[in-house]
């Protein structure tokens, strides 16, 4: 994989999750990723987004903030992930805000918050292993 691939074309899983792009705040090392999930991602007669998809949005924001921090020279692999579900998410738009909490030599600690209609839906923390990418 080339580092340019990470920025020019989003991975297919992001397309499937209804990704609508992201904004990266380099100074504060924060990424905001937008998603729009329809009822195909929901249970309970299509009204509640399944927890695995909630987790995927949180995890994506934490992985992408690491990739952006290192300008695509490194990707990350999630080593551990802890999710707290605070309320049900419904089909529609979401915003996942990921940030870097601490950098080590080969491990990065991250966190994310997932919002829908300005309400906090879920939070997560993770430890991520840095993976160098070659051109």
Report on this model:
There is one protein chain. This protein has 135 residues and is of the alpha+beta class. The protein has one domain (3-132): Hotdog Thioesterase (Thiol Ester Dehydrase, Chain A, Roll). The protein is built from three helices and eight strands, in the order H-H-E-E-E-E-H-E-E-E-E. It is globular, with a radius of gyration of 14 Å. The relative contact order is 0.22.
Basic shape: globular
Instruction: Give the neighbour order of strands across the main sheet.
Output: 1-2-6-7-8-5
**How many separate structural domains?**
1
- Put simply, the count of helices is 3
> Poorly predicted ranges (pLDDT <50, ≥5 residues)?
none
The CATH topology, please? Thiol Ester Dehydrase, Chain A
- SS elements, strand count: 8
Assign the CATH class: Alpha Beta
Major β-sheet profile: 6 strands, antiparallel
- The Rg value, from CA coordinates, equals 14 Å
How much of the sequence is in beta strands? over 45%
CATH architecture: Roll
Proportion of residues in helical segments = 10-25%
Order of helices and strands: HHEEEEHEEEE
CATH fourth-tier homologous superfamily: Hotdog Thioesterase
Output mean pLDDT.
92
Termini separation comes to: 7 Å
Determine the structural class based on helices, strands and strand pairing.
alpha+beta
């Amino acid at each position: 994989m080339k580092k340019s691939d990470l920025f020019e074309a989003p991975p297919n899983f992001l397309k499937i999750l209804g990704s609508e792009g992201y904004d990266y705040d380099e100074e504060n090392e924060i990424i905001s990723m937008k998603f729009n999930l329809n009822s195909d991602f929901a249970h309970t007669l299509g009204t509640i987004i399944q927890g695995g998809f909630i987790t995927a949005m949180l995890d994506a924001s934490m992985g992408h903030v690491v990739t952006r921090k290192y300008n695509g020279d490194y990707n990350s692999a999630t080593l551990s992930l802890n999710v707290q579900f605070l309320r049900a998410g419904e089909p529609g738009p979401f915003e996942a805000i990921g940030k870097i909490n601490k950098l080590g030599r080969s491990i990065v600690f991250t966190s994310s918050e997932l919002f829908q209609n300005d309400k906090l839906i879920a939070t997560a923390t993770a430890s991520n292993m840095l993976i160098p990418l070659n051109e």
